[in-house]
Amino acid sequence: MYDRALLQALATDKGDRHYTDLAERLKVAPATAWRLWTGKTAPSARVAAAVEQVYGLPASRLLKLAPSEQVKAAA
């Protein structure tokens, strides 16, 4: 699972109020930024690393295991 609200909050705190701002800051295509902004897709490893570098948000906080995946991981 991907916490888009957390990414949006951090981006907004940095002055990024639109997905195009996110695209520019992360150096990704606007379509990719739109999918991240709207929660349509989770970030790739490269984008998660860019989020950590730009916004200081570790991938472990951005990407969370779904409840069913948590059960599998605990087993």
Distance between the termini: 19 Å
- Named CATH architecture: Orthogonal Bundle
Shape label? globular
- Low-confidence segments, given as residue ranges, are none
The profile of the biggest β sheet is:
none
Radius of gyration: 13 Å
* β-sheet strand percentage: under 5%
Secondary structure tally, helices: 6
CATH top-level class: Mainly Alpha
Order of helices and strands: HHHHHH
Give the overall pLDDT as a whole number: 88
Number of strands: 0
Secondary-structure-based class equals mainly alpha
Total count of domains: 1
CATH topology: 434 Repressor (Amino-terminal Domain)
Level of helix content? 55-70%
Topology:
Layout: H1 4-13, H2 19-26, H3 30-38, H4 45-55, H5 59-62, H6 67-74
Helix pairs in contact: 2-3
In short:
This is AsnC family transcriptional regulator. With 75 residues, this protein is an all-alpha fold.
Structure description:
This is AsnC family transcriptional regulator. Residues 20-62 form the HTH cro/C1-type domain. With 75 residues, the chain is mainly alpha-helical. The protein has one domain (4-74): 434 Repressor (Amino-terminal Domain) (Orthogonal Bundle). It has six helices and no strands. It has helices at residues 4-13, 19-26, 30-38, 45-55, 59-62, 67-74.
